[in-house]
Amino acid sequence: MLKLIFMINRVEGMSYERFVEHHRDRHAPLFTSIPEADRYVRKYTVSHPVPAENYPPRAYDGLTEIWFEDWEDHDA
Fold first, then answer.
1. pLDDT digits (tens, 9 = 90+) for 49-62
2. What is the pTM of this model?
3. Which is nearest to 50 in space by CA: 58, 42, 40?
Protein backbone atom coordinates (compact mmCIF):
# COMPACT_ATOMS: atom_id res chain seq x y z
CA MET A 1 0.00 0.00 0.00
CA LEU A 2 1.24 3.47 -0.90
CA LYS A 3 0.01 6.53 0.99
CA LEU A 4 0.63 10.12 -0.07
CA ILE A 5 0.10 12.91 2.44
CA PHE A 6 -0.19 16.57 1.47
CA MET A 7 -0.16 19.28 4.14
CA ILE A 8 -1.53 22.42 2.54
CA ASN A 9 -2.10 26.04 3.47
CA ARG A 10 -4.71 28.47 2.25
CA VAL A 11 -3.85 31.36 -0.02
CA GLU A 12 -3.17 34.70 1.59
CA GLY A 13 -6.37 36.60 2.33
CA MET A 14 -8.62 33.51 2.46
CA SER A 15 -10.27 32.82 5.79
CA TYR A 16 -9.69 29.47 7.45
CA GLU A 17 -13.44 28.75 7.39
CA ARG A 18 -13.66 29.49 3.65
CA PHE A 19 -10.63 27.29 2.99
CA VAL A 20 -12.13 24.35 4.89
CA GLU A 21 -15.42 24.74 3.02
CA HIS A 22 -13.66 24.84 -0.35
CA HIS A 23 -11.33 21.95 0.43
CA ARG A 24 -14.07 19.71 1.83
CA ASP A 25 -17.09 20.68 -0.30
CA ARG A 26 -15.57 21.56 -3.68
CA HIS A 27 -12.07 20.14 -4.07
CA ALA A 28 -12.70 16.70 -2.56
CA PRO A 29 -15.82 15.98 -4.67
CA LEU A 30 -14.03 17.24 -7.77
CA PHE A 31 -11.09 14.90 -7.16
CA THR A 32 -13.29 11.89 -6.44
CA SER A 33 -15.32 12.53 -9.61
CA ILE A 34 -12.27 11.81 -11.80
CA PRO A 35 -12.65 8.31 -13.32
CA GLU A 36 -9.01 7.46 -12.64
CA ALA A 37 -9.48 8.32 -8.96
CA ASP A 38 -12.40 5.94 -8.77
CA ARG A 39 -10.39 3.21 -10.47
CA TYR A 40 -6.96 3.56 -8.81
CA VAL A 41 -7.39 5.36 -5.49
CA ARG A 42 -8.15 3.00 -2.61
CA LYS A 43 -8.94 5.73 -0.08
CA TYR A 44 -9.06 9.53 -0.06
CA THR A 45 -9.52 11.79 2.97
CA VAL A 46 -9.30 15.47 3.83
CA SER A 47 -8.77 16.73 7.37
CA HIS A 48 -8.50 20.11 9.02
CA PRO A 49 -6.72 20.76 12.32
CA VAL A 50 -8.67 22.45 15.08
CA PRO A 51 -6.93 24.83 17.49
CA ALA A 52 -6.68 23.38 20.99
CA GLU A 53 -5.65 24.94 24.27
CA ASN A 54 -2.13 24.05 25.45
CA TYR A 55 -1.09 22.86 21.97
CA PRO A 56 1.07 24.77 19.49
CA PRO A 57 -0.66 26.61 16.65
CA ARG A 58 -1.43 24.54 13.57
CA ALA A 59 1.39 24.21 11.06
CA TYR A 60 -0.99 23.71 8.11
CA ASP A 61 -4.63 24.40 7.22
CA GLY A 62 -5.55 21.13 5.55
CA LEU A 63 -4.36 17.60 5.11
CA THR A 64 -5.10 15.38 2.13
CA GLU A 65 -4.34 11.65 2.23
CA ILE A 66 -4.48 9.46 -0.87
CA TRP A 67 -3.94 5.69 -0.75
CA PHE A 68 -2.95 3.60 -3.77
CA GLU A 69 -2.45 -0.15 -3.92
CA ASP A 70 1.05 0.33 -5.38
CA TRP A 71 3.23 2.60 -7.50
CA GLU A 72 1.71 1.16 -10.66
CA ASP A 73 -1.74 2.42 -9.68
CA HIS A 74 -0.22 5.74 -8.63
CA ASP A 75 1.44 6.16 -12.00
CA ALA A 76 -1.70 5.18 -13.94
1. 998 999 999 999 99
2. 0.85
3. 58
